[in-house]
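Progress narrative, Year 2. Work on Ferredoxin--NADP reductase from Nonlabens mediterrranea advanced from sequence curation to structure prediction during this period.
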Amino acid sequence: MIETDILIIGAGPTGLFTVFEAGLLKLKCHLIDALPQPGGQCSELYPKKPIYDIPGFPEVLAGDLVDNLMEQIKPFQPGFTLGERAEDIDKLEDGTFIVTTNKGTKHHANAVAIAGGLGSFEPRKPQIVGIENYEDRGVAYMIKDPEAYRDKKVVIAGGGDSALDWSIFLANVAQEVTLVHRREEFRGALDSVEKVQELVTQNKINLITPAEVTDVKGTDKVESVTITIHDEAKRFQEIECDAFVPLFGLSPKLGPIANWGLEIEKNAIKVDNTLDYQTNIPGIYAIGDVNTYPGKLKLILCGFHEATLMCQSVYQRMNPNKKYVLKYTTVGGIDGFDGSRK
Ligand code: FAD
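Result:
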């Protein structure tokens, strides 16, 4: 049995930063993640993509952010159960919890922080007959390493942030980037839309709208795609390419956590955002992308904030008679943390 103060389910950016905030309060953490490595979406979906909205970092690659978080929490020596999915939870009479993974590993904790992000996620796939035959042969639903597209001809489909950001990034890596979207308007950030339009005028992105990729062709791998243009004439255009990357987002599935008796709304766990991000079960918190409350934003910095307030609540739960006085990390004297990286 693994013993800890806070058991964190999910080692994404939110779960990792929780270890730091808990560590300042001398609370010990252990993390479980179904993936074999920490970092959540940042490591699994977009390690080489730059992030621009982490305070204090004008630009940081998602993978580097994870490395930095791992470095930041090192002094607090968190435990990890990786490659295992949290499956069952039992609340004991004393208010503590036992969480068991799909491989039978048991964890005993005073509080449980669910930082499960999107849960186990599946990419939304386009309705193209036979597309599965080209998966990993030029068709990919997420970009893990942009270098794989160096000097290649790439067709990206989609109208959200991922499609826009990757088109911008690959414009300087790939030989040719074609962005196909079924509407004239994009859903992504205005700044990214403007950047794409700038690159279109520089002939670095070939933009085709309103249109859809309706067929993929090739012998052993992708060699071309057919694009149906949604104008009055319903024209077709054949584009030669090495890769087709439909970026239509992820369809989130909460997985086993959905059966834990928690209040769920639209695939997310409802929490009390007026206080401490606790769920309807006292002692179980939900932070980061996995939770929902009025005005919720699925951003890394929001997860960091939620983790910080949650740790204060766990401290009060475990030390009901102690008054916690906030100290800054820049001021010496915080027990267990002298700022040095050992
Ligand atoms: P996640 O990163 O999703 O991590 C959750 C972890 O929990 C996963 O590793 C998962 O395996 C694990 N897990 C789930 N269920 C279980 C279980 N039952 N047992 C064990 N493990 C489990 N945000 C920004 O702020 N700025 C950006 O520029 C930005 N760009 C993005 C670009 C893309 C392409 C994508 C997809 C997202 C982007 N985001 C961005 C969103 C950001 O990545 C998320 O807000 C962030 O990852 C949420 O962190 P998290 O720790 O809450 O969850």
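The chain has a mean pLDDT of 92. The first strand starts at residue 2 and ends at 9.
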